[in-house]
Each structure stands twice: as C-alpha cells, then as structure tokens.
Specification:
Number of strands of chain A: 10
Number of domains of chain B: 2
Mean pLDDT of chain A: 86
Largest interface: A-B, 25 and 17 residues
Distance between the termini of chain A: 28 Å
Number of strands of chain B: 4
Distance between the termini of chain B: 21 Å
Helix content of chain B: 55-70%
Largest sheet of chain B: 4 strands, antiparallel
Radius of gyration of chain A: 19 Å
Mean pLDDT of chain B: 84
Strand content of chain B: 5-15%
CATH superfamily of the largest domain in chain A: P-loop containing nucleotide triphosphate hydrolases
Shape of chain A: globular
CATH architecture of the largest domain in chain A: 3-Layer(aba) Sandwich
Strand content of chain A: 15-25%
Order of helices and strands of chain A: EEEHEEHEHHHEHEHEEHH
Number of helices of chain A: 9
CATH topology of the largest domain in chain A: Rossmann fold
Strand order of the largest sheet of chain A: 6-7-8-3-9-10
Shape of chain B: elongated
Structural class of chain B: alpha+beta
Low-confidence stretches of chain A: 233-265
Oligomer: heterodimer
Number of domains of chain A: 2
C-alpha cells in the first residue's frame, strides 16, 4: 500500500537529511506505528505519502503508484484515498459535528442524499451517535478526535495516517481512540500512526517502525515501544541492511530479526 | 451539490469580509467611472462630428427660404446658381486646392440631421425645407480655407461658407484633453483596485485557511478550493462596474439629456442608451481585472 524505495529527503543542504535512504513497505490492511524522537523524520514520512513534499531522491509508491508521477491536478485524487488525523483535531469551530464530517464529502462533490446516509453511519463507527448537533467546543478532547477520525474516513480512504492522534489526550481517552483506529483497521483500512505514546504502542502490540535521525533503526512485528534487543547492536544491523539500495531488510515480510524480536517477548 | 457548496462558500466569504468587499466595490466603481467618462467623451465627440466631419472640411451653404445674406436676394438658390457653383468648383483655379466635393441636397441634409440629432426633441420640429442644401468640400490643404471662402461667399445663391473643422476642432481638443485626464486618473485608480482586490483575497484566504487546509487534505480539487475566492473578487468588481455604468447612464440622462440639451439645443448630445454600450465593456474590464489579480494572489498565498 505504501512503499518507500531508498527515499531521501533533504530540506536544507547544510543540515543532515530528514529522511536518509529509507526503504519500507507497509502492506494493505496493516497497522503500523511510526516511533522516534522529535525530528526523527516521522512527519516527513507522512508528508511524502501525501505528496505535500517531493522526495529528494528515491521513489514513494502509494497504492502502487509512484507519487512523483502524479501530476498536480491529480494530487486531489491521491489525497481522497488517504485520510489524515492530527494531534490538534483541526475541526471547523463554527460547524457542528455532522457538518464537520459532511464537509469532507461536500468539497469532493458528494450528493446530499449520500451525505445524509453516510455521515451518521461513520459517526456510529467512531462512537458519536446522538451527538451530531454538538459544536466542537461542547465536546471533550477525545470526542473531538473521534469527529476528526470520522471526517478522515468518511470517504472510505484505503489509508489512514494519524500524526500523534493521542498527543493531547489522557491515557484512558487515548485507549478509546485506539479502539476506534483498530476498528477502522479491522474494516480493511491501512493505518499508519506516528506516536510518542509508549503505553499505547505496548498495549496494541502492532508493527513498530522506529526512526532515528532519518534512518529506520528498527522494524518489528507485534513489538513494544522500546526494543527488547540492545539498541546499539540492533541499530547497526538495521542501518547496514537498509542502507543498501537492494537491501530488502526493511521489508516487513522478511523480518527474520524483527519477528524473532517480536517473539522474544 | 458542488455548485451549491461553492455558492455558500462565496456567500460566507463575502459576509466575513464585508468591509473589504465594500471598499473593493467602491474603488472599482470610481476607477471604472473614469474609464467610462473617457469613453463617453469620445462618444460625444463622434456624435458632434456628425456625418460630414471626417469627410470634408469646408461647407458652402446655399440660400434657403428664410436666408437674409447678401447673396440670397433672389430667395432659395436656383438650379442654375447650383450649376454655376459646381462649374466654379470644377474650374482649374479652384480645383487645384480641393480633393473632391459633394453636393448635399435638402433631403440628404434632413436625413443626416435626423441621424445626428436623433436624441434631441428639435428633430421633430424640423422639415427638409428648413435645411439648406450645401456643397461639402474636402480640401487638399485645410489651411487654404480662406481662398474658398473668398471665392464663394459673394457668389449668388450662397448663404455662407463655413470651415466646420475650425469651429469644432478647438472644442474637440478640449474634450480630448479631458478624456486623456480621465484615462490617467482611471489608470491610477485601476492600479489601486488591483492591489486592493489582491489584499482582500489574501485576507480572505488567510481567514479561511483552516477550511482550505482541510479541503486540501480530503482531496478537494483546485477549482473547488480556489473558485470561491476568485468569484468573491469578481463579484465585488462586477457590482462596482454596474454602479459605474449606472452613473454614466444617469449623467447622460439627467445632465446631458435634461439640462445640457436645453441649454444648447443646436448641439447633438449622446443619448442615455448610447452610454449603455459602455456597460458590457466596463463590466468585462472589472471582472477581468479582479479575476486576474485574485488568481495571481491565490497562486502565492493559497497552496493547493
């Protein structure tokens, strides 16, 4: 669903690259956490998937298509296939819950009857039935994030990108949000979530991709927030593997090391 | 659905930015009024030129019924007198100064008069008999008018010889200067209008950056995102242009039609309907200016 081939992104020639020869593949229907310190390249990764930026070198494939080959007038179509959720919700304050979700359908020209049918369904999926007419300021943070998720998935994108969706929420509320994301993932949507929240990652036991200084230093299935393998050795091994152009070490399927690591718990 | 959505976006944008929109309307109104004033002056010049102005310089009017000039002792010019004048015009002594000449009969004079004064009530009280026949002469050198005048003034059957250009040209040069001033003022005002439209669109894009950001993310097309902003500027400019057209019409109707045409009944003024020819041009100009300036602004300030 998302494939990075040797992707390097340089914002500033003098500084180190934000992403450095990243090779990564996330399959259809997968749920992957993107972890790492601030500045490790998580947000750059998400921006490249959305074609908000161009990779300096290497190729980014989304749904089998190299995004570099998508002409600017077709970028909207790419983005219709990707839902995005942010830490700060980004709801429209003067619109109620229903209107906020419906907005995402209106702007791509969906008919009123389809909107009337679809929005309540999606609001039910995220657990907000009966709150259609609340305004955003009348909702708790967790509820606001549910509205944002509903808006992101109402057009049934194949991919959901979540950039620290639980960053502003307390642990209990966060778990509720994770339940919603997991449900959406169960319905077949590929979910990529950038996060700092170790409790959540440890609880969910999904695939974890760790970035450090723009390099993938860990890629484990059913993993924890911190690696069980000593970081020094781990990082060197993965750096070697992913550094090679032909290196398929970052391929989730191969993962002899990562699956071992996962089972080691 | 998408159209309804775009329209509601435009409505909310106009409401949210009301004071800026009003200022755009006023600035385009004033600038296009000056453009239109220049156009009106040119229309008026054309109107006053009448049928003959661009074709001839000198007119020899023949005696009519009520003529009192010395050469008109015998009343209306006779066909023989006409023939004499024609022969004289064709004689080498005169022919060397003129390119060609035409004879305008009373009926033709009436026809041209009706065209020129079509907006004036005077046209109803004039009959072909009251208008003099004339020879219209196109000079090789308009400065040699004096020669023609001296030769023909004293001929029998000639009421008067007039160099029409000399009379009108002074007036036209004043009017041309006035329309040049109007165009210069219009140019400055149009620059103002363009900058103001650009600023308005920028503010509008800024105040709605939340919405446009979300529209981008959910994959709204460039048209859906940008069109409301562009139309906002275009609508304001078109309203300004419509006001300018209305003002020009009012000037033609009340000032020229009701006041000036009574003060100067022998002058042909443009009709209010003629100023409406300018309206589509003004509205088109306003819409184009607004469209282009908002498009350029959006390219810089609204990423899609």
């Amino acid at each position: 669903m998302i494939r990075f081939e040797n992707v390097t992104k340089v914002y500033d020639q003098k500084a180190r690259p934000a992403l450095d020869s990243v090779n990564l593949e996330i399959d259809r229907g997968e749920f992957a956490f993107l972890v790492g310190a601030s500045g490790s390249g998580k947000s750059t990764f998400l921006r490249l998937v959305l074609k908000e930026d161009r990779a300096t070198s290497g190729a980014v494939y989304v749904a089998g298509q190299n995004v570099a080959n998508i002409s600017s007038w077709r970028v909207p179509r790419l983005r219709r296939g990707i839902g995005v959720v942010f830490q700060d919700f980004r709801l429209l304050p003067q619109k109620n819950v229903f209107a906020n979700v419906a907005f995402a359908m209106q702007v791509i020209g969906k008919s009123r009857s389809i909107i009337r049918d679809t929005v309540p369904e999606v609001l039910k999926t995220v657990g907000l039935e009966g709150k259609e007419h609340r305004m955003p300021h009348e909702l708790s943070g967790g509820e606001q994030q549910r509205v944002a998720i509903a808006r992101a998935v109402v057009n049934r994108p194949g991919i959901l990108l979540a950039d620290e969706p639980t960053g502003n929420l307390d642990p209990t509320t966060s778990m509720g949000i994770m339940g919603v994301l997991d449900k959406i993932n169960q319905n077949g949507t590929t979910v990529v979530m950038a996060t700092h929240d170790d409790d959540i990652v440890n609880e969910m036991r999904k695939r974890v991709v760790e970035l450090r200084n723009g390099v993938v230093i860990r890629d484990e299935a059913r993993a924890l927030y911190t690696s069980m393998i000593p970081v020094v050795g781990q990082s060197r091994r993965f750096k070697d593997a992913s550094g090679r152009p032909d290196g398929s070490a970052a391929d989730p399927g191969d993962g002899s090391v990562s699956s071992q690591a996962g089972e080691a718990q | 659905m998408r159209l309804a959505f775009i329209l509601s976006e435009i409505g909310s944008g106009l409401r949210r930015n009301l004071s800026m929109v009003v200022s755009v309307i006023l600035v385009t109104f004033v600038s296009l009024t000056f453009v239109g004033a220049a156009g009106m002056l040119q229309l008026q010049i054309n109107q006053m030129k009448g049928y003959w102005y661009d074709k001839v310089q000198v007119a020899i009017f023949l005696c009519g019924d009520g003529s009192t000039a010395a050469g008109c002792a015998t009343g209306t010019a006779t066909p023989e007198q006409q023939e004499n004048l024609r022969t004289l015009l064709e004689s080498p002594a005169v022919a060397q100064y003129i390119n060609d000449f035409q004879f305008e009969s009373k009926d033709e004079a009436y026809k041209h008069f009706k065209e020129q004064f079509s907006n004036s009530p005077i046209v109803d009280s004039v009959t072909p008999d009251q208008l003099p026949a004339s020879f219209r002469i196109n000079m090789k050198d308009p400065e040699k008018y004096q020669i023609i005048s001296e030769t023909f003034s004293s001929q029998p059957g000639v009421e008067t010889v007039i160099d029409q250009r000399q009379v009108l040209e002074r007036l036209f040069s004043v009017m041309n200067a006035a329309s040049l001033v109007a165009v210069i003022i219009a140019g400055v005002m149009i620059v103002c209008a363009i900058l103001l439209i650009a600023t308005t669109i920028r503010l509008s894009a800024f105040s709605r950056r939340r919405e446009t950001g979300i529209m981008r993310l959910v994959g709204a097309s460039k048209t859906v995102i940008q069109l409301p902003f562009i139309l906002e500027g275009v609508i304001a400019a078109v309203i300004g242009a419509a006001l300018a057209s209305g003002t020009l019409w009012a000037v033609a109707h009340f000032f020229l039609g009701e006041y000036m045409s009574k003060q100067y009944p022998d002058t042909a003024f443009i009709s209010p309907a003629q100023t409406l020819i300018l309206a589509p041009a003004l509205i088109g100009l306003g819409a184009t200016l607004a469209g282009i300036s908002s498009l350029l602004t959006l390219r810089r300030y609204l990423r899609v």
